[in-house]
Design a protein that fits this description.
Monooxygenase; single chain; 4 helices; mainly alpha; 87 residues
């Protein structure tokens, strides 16, 4: 059975993972990347990469999965921002 700390960790990871979804949805709907901070997303991507690496080293799948999802969302925002800026 999972401990309280595992539930807290999973909940925190899920919330972190979905935190960029509102930004992504807004970007897709409006196609206006002007308000997206590329610098913040780049630093966040570096941090998330570190968490995934840490999760791999610790063999902690909740850390790996939740942070990998956050990385994916972050990368999609960066790609869409780049595409929409060209238009």
């Amino acid at each position: 059975m999972a401990s309280i700390s595992q539930y807290v960790g999973i909940a925190a990871g899920v919330l972190t993972g979905i935190s960029l979804l509102p930004q992504l949805i807004k970007l897709v709907r409006e196609k206006k990347p002007e308000n997206v901070s590329i610098g913040m997303l780049t630093v966040l991507l570096a941090g998330l990469s570190g968490w995934v690496w840490y999760g791999i080293l610790k063999e902690d799948y909740p850390i790996i999965v939740t942070n990998a999802f956050s990385m994916l969302t972050n990368v999609v925002i960066l790609i869409l921002s780049s595409i929409y800026k060209r238009k």
